Amino acid sequence: AGAETVKRAVQLDAASRFQESLVCYQEGIDLLLQVVKATTDEAKKTRYRQKISEYMSRAEDIKKHIEKEKQDGKYHKQIRIEENAIGFGYEKLFHEYLTEIVSEVWVEDPYIRQLYNFLRFCEMLVKGPCKVKTIHLLTSYDEGSGRSQQMSVLEEIKQSLSNYGVTLNIDFSSSIHDREIRFNNGWMIKIGRGLDYFKRPQGRFSIGYCDLDLRPCHETTVDIFHTKHTKKM
Question: Is the peptide bond before 129 cis (omega within 30 degrees of 0)?
Fold first, then answer.
């Protein structure tokens, strides 16, 4: 298993898919270290250790390369969520980028209609480990009779967030088209379907209704960037 994992790491490395190759290198190294512990043949141990040393050196070079890309504002990672895939709740998707220095978040999405999803996103921000103080939402008005309910729900979310010391600023635009989420630590996440990439649950008491990690998803692409400065609305 260790050999197959590092083989995959080398293939990804050659394809310049550095973030994915780094994960495979790290997993492969851990597996090979377990093999070394279980091996009694000293000659084999020596060969394994030599290979592990080479992989560790390459993994360290990739880490430095990724860090430089972040500093230069050139970092890009893409995640493909397949149709009906599960395990892509907000915490799994965003947690890595919500560092303790995050205090301000921008959400730009013209078609936020499943407001429970936006509420769940806000709950994740409140739980931390980030120290969010301000959330900016830019969206469009719901059409027809749904507008009054939209305004009522957003106002309720705003009031609830204020109980946790978080300010929600809401703006509306009829001309926005892009969907993106930005944190003031430099991370930017673009989701093809915005926050509403989950399928509706079969019922209020079906698995996945409460836990988004167990909710099937629509097919979509997530692009993650790191920039030196995030623009403000």
Answer: yes
Tokens of 155: 């106002």
3-state secondary structure of 198: strand
**Considering the entire predicted model, what is its pTM?**
0.71
Measure the N-to-C terminal CA separation of the chain; round to a whole number of Å.
Answer: 48
Please tell me whether residues 33 and 82 are part of one structural domain.
Answer: no
Task: Say how far residue 220 (Cα) sits from the centre of its chain.
Answer: 13
The pair phi, psi for residue 35, each rounded to 5°, is -65, -40
Q: Which two tokens stand for residue 158?
A: 């705003």
- Asked whether residue 121 falls in the same domain as residue 80, the answer is yes
Task: Work out the burial of residue 172: count CB atoms within 10 Å of its CB; fewer than 13 is exposed, 13-18 middle, 19 or more buried.
Answer: middle
Q: Are residues 80 and 62 in the same domain?
A: no
DSSP state of 97: G
pLDDT digits (tens, 9 = 90+) for 73-110: 678 888 999 999 999 999 999 988 998 999 999 999 98
Shared domain for 12 and 105, answered yes or no, is no
Tokens 């990724």 label which residue? 66
Q: Are 148 and 88 in a shared domain?
A: yes
Q: What is the DSSP string of 71-119?
A: HHT-EEEEEEEPTT-----HHHHHGGG--TT--EEEEE-TT---HHHHH
Domain membership of residue 147 (yes or no) is yes
Summarize pLDDT for 126-159 with one digit per residue, the tens.
998 889 999 999 999 887 777 888 999 999 999 9
Q: Are 31 and 22 in contact (CB under 8 A)?
A: no
One domain for residues 20 and 130: no
